[in-house]
Amino acid sequence: MTDFILILISAALINNFVLQQPIAVDPVLAVSGPPPATRPRIHALGVATLWLMLVSNLVCYLIYRHLLLPLGFGYLSLFVFLPAIVITVGPAVRVLRGVFPDLPLEGMQRLLIGNAGVLGLIVLGTEPDKGLVHTVAVSLGAGLGFWLVLSLFDDLNRRLRLQHIPAAFQGLPIQLISAGLMGLAFLGFSGLVKP
């Protein structure tokens, strides 16, 4: 149980998929763009991405370990992972609508399908076979880390809208600078978990 918690904390804070491994930065920048997103919309994207990372990683792990590797087709993993993610998005959103009917999940499927963090998590999780428990812990940690960065980035953008920013830095430049500074701040967690 201790290993599960350490892997979860490590994936959420130390090896964050948005800041330390900039795999999933595109949905963060898309949601926090010029039209201000509402707080429930931010949390809906965080919950949906967490759920999709968990479900699709489990499905792809089982397909890879129990179908592709025994048949000798491990090299076709990307051609299987991409359709598996697209197929799991619809049912994942429907389950979330049933569990959380108040979350605004309309139009969320496009952001979820285009999230490179989901595919990056699956590809990074299949190579070292550390077991199903490790896969679940990394999936939950990556989803929680994505949700945390998404919320922090939204708070930062709300504060930036109230400040006077020079014209050359408005929009994407200040967002990228902010993401870089948040990445540096998250480097402070690097000594949190000792191997």
Distance separating the two termini: 15 Å
Q: What count of helical segments does DSSP give?
A: 8
Biggest sheet features: none
Helix content range of the residues, please?
over 70%
Strand content: under 5%
Overall form: globular
Rg of Cα set:
17 Å
- Catalogue the unreliable spans: none
Mean pLDDT: 81
According to DSSP, the number of beta strands is 0
Order of helices and strands: HHHHHHHH
The SS-based structural class is mainly alpha
SSE layout:
Layout: H1 2-14, H2 25-31, H3 39-71, H4 77-99, H5 108-113, H6 116-126, H7 132-161, H8 172-186
Helix pairs in contact: 1-7, 3-4, 3-6, 3-7, 4-6
Concise structural overview:
By secondary structure, this protein is mainly alpha-helical. It is 71% helix and 0% strand.
Characterization of the model:
By secondary structure, the protein is an all-alpha fold. It is 71% helix and 0% strand. The chain has eight helices and no strands. It has helices at residues 2-14, 25-31, 39-71, 77-99, 108-113, 116-126, 132-161, 172-186. Helix 3 (39-71) packs antiparallel against helix 7 (132-161). The protein is globular and about 60 Å long.
Supply database-style keywords:
globular, 195 residues, 8 helices
